[in-house]
Amino acid sequence: MSCNSNRLKYINQFTGEFGGAFADLGTFLPLVLGLIALNHFSAQGIFIGFGLFALFSAFYYRRPIPVQPMKVIAALVIAQGLTPGMLQASGMMMGGILLLLAYSGAITWMAKQLSPAISIGIQLAIGLQLIWMGAQMMSDTWLIGILAFSALFASRFLPLPYLVMPLVLVLGIVWQYYSGFAPSFTLAASNDWQLGWPSMQEWTSAAGLLVLPQLALTLTNAVIATSAMAKEKFPHDANHHTDRFSPKRLATSSGWANLLLAPFGAAAMCHGAGGLAVQYHFGARTWLAPALFGSSCLLIALCWGEGIASLLSLIPLAVLGSLLAIAGVQLAWSKRFIDGKPFCIFVILSTAAVCLFVNTAAGLAAGMILEMGRRQWHTINDLRS
Description:
Mean pLDDT: 84
Radius of gyration: 21 Å
Number of helices: 19
Helix content: over 70%
Low-confidence stretches: none
């Protein structure tokens, strides 16, 4: 009985790391494959960049700190058909800005200004956006999307919960192959990996079109919110290694990764609270999950050809959408909605609303103004008493 129990425990641990390693594909694949399929960027350069960054994160943090494309930059590059040089320039500029904020101490100061309510509000807004994006991706084949989402959501109640995500992916590929539907993406078997350097025009265009819209989201979601969530998920690490998940560390690792890898064709990359939420949900607890992801990315880059391109093209968009929606649910929910004080909930909802209807920077500012008003109110009341 004890042997069976231990065997089940080890199976759960391994499948959890394996499932968590690829749980963030709903965010990762649509953007990465879009850059390769629609913009004809080098598959080798992009996958090598993610592989090296993920392996570094695995051994630097020793926990499943995720690696993602910078969503705003990737989406704008795809939607507007921008050049590889602009993508390179935006990655290097974001890397330089993150390093400047990290080493100057500005990112630490910014993190201290954010109360938990503001961070949760930003996470709520981004979570709702991910759910909406996932629903749109499921819209063409609703039945497949709903079945996949239901299976992923119910997986936490099953004896081997972490086997569900890989199983859903495999069944999705099998369904796509035999259904007769056109593949979600058409990928070339060969994308030339050519080194280059952005022109002056590409530098200036990237600064206005890509870097400024991305900056607020990166600072809040990829640095500050990820730091807060990592400390919540791994409190033992946070207590014994006080700076392991600090905003400065997260900004530094993202900064150096972009600055060093973008010149070789890597996409703009960052960490992310949504990725951490969904990887943790599917069982990732150690460095093994990002190490598996990083190794897989390097293997895809080195073996890129007709077989891998065709296989990735077979992943149904609805299945990717269900993964993205699960990530959104995990990110949006907080226990503060149940046990938080009324003003705390008000700040959360106000911050999220401004993020959704204006932008992330405005939501951050609105939350900070509300919190400053609350502190001022308490100060005045203390003086009166």
